[in-house]
């Protein structure tokens, strides 16, 4: 069971009308919840907070989401799609180690704009939810698996192109790179500085560069 249920819940209308206006309202609620979860955290955000931020009425909120857990699952879906689309765009054209470092630079720069605060949207939710909400854990795990596959595919491409030697193991290197990134987010958040994230990624990339063909 999750430790994040909302105390005041109302049964959702089973036949929610999927009109353009209804879909816009749902999107506004999810977007507002995503922003609040990212800045305040899931557990610190109430449904009333989301309702006020989105401008939705209580009946509109519960027409779309029967409880806080349902809203959390919707936010995970939206945030996962956003993060994975961003990463796919950044990684698909990487064909050199310099390109991989540009990927690193973009992540560190974005993190530096908020002084390391808030961390990764998916990572932050994973920390709060994975031990208490199995559906959330599975959804987040699927997202991290997809993210890792993108890194593995990128490193495999570098090996096929001859940038990395045949000794390079894209699976292990991809796992290490994603772990460095997520650990970097956590340390940057605690330090309120992107420097720990930069160091963690640099060390992971230096290890990958060890397998570069001379």
From TrEMBL:
<keyword id="KW-0238">DNA-binding</keyword>
<feature type="DNA-binding region" description="H-T-H motif">
    <location>
        <begin position="46"/>
        <end position="65"/>
    </location>
</feature>
<dbReference type="GO" id="GO:0003677">
    <property type="term" value="F:DNA binding"/>
</dbReference>
<protein>
    <submittedName>
        <fullName>Transcriptional regulator, TetR family</fullName>
    </submittedName>
</protein>
<dbReference type="Pfam" id="PF21993">
    <property type="entry name" value="TetR_C_13_2"/>
</dbReference>
<dbReference type="InterPro" id="IPR009057">
    <property type="entry name" value="Homeodomain-like_sf"/>
</dbReference>
<keyword id="KW-0805">Transcription regulation</keyword>
<dbReference type="InterPro" id="IPR001647">
    <property type="entry name" value="HTH_TetR"/>
</dbReference>
<dbReference type="InterPro" id="IPR054156">
    <property type="entry name" value="YxaF_TetR_C"/>
</dbReference>
<dbReference type="Pfam" id="PF00440">
    <property type="entry name" value="TetR_N"/>
</dbReference>
<dbReference type="InterPro" id="IPR036271">
    <property type="entry name" value="Tet_transcr_reg_TetR-rel_C_sf"/>
</dbReference>
<keyword id="KW-0804">Transcription</keyword>
<feature type="domain" description="HTH tetR-type">
    <location>
        <begin position="23"/>
        <end position="83"/>
    </location>
</feature>
């Amino acid at each position: 069971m999750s430790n994040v249920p909302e105390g005041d819940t109302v049964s959702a209308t089973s036949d929610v009308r999927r009109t353009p206006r209804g879909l816009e309202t749902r999107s506004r609620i999810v977007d507002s919840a995503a922003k609040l979860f990212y800045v305040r955290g899931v557990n610190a955000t109430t449904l009333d907070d989301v309702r006020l931020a989105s401008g939705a009425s209580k009946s509109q909120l519960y027409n779309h989401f029967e409880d806080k857990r349902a809203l959390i699952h919707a936010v995970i879906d939206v945030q996962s799609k956003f993060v994975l689309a961003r990463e796919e765009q950044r990684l698909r054209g990487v064909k050199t180690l310099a390109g991989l470092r540009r990927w690193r630079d973009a992540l560190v720069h974005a993190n530096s704009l908020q002084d390391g605060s808030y961390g990764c949207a998916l990572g932050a939710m994973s920390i709060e939810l994975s031990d208490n909400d199995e559906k959330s854990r599975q959804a987040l795990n699927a997202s991290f698996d997809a993210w890792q596959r993108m890194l593995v595919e990128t490193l495999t491409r570098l090996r096929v192109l001859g940038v990395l030697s045949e000794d390079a193991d894209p699976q292990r290197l991809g796992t290490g790179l994603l772990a460095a990134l997520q650990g970097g987010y956590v340390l940057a958040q605690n330090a309120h500085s992107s420097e720990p994230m930069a160091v963690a990624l640099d060390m992971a990339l230096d290890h990958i560069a060890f397998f570069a063909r001379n």
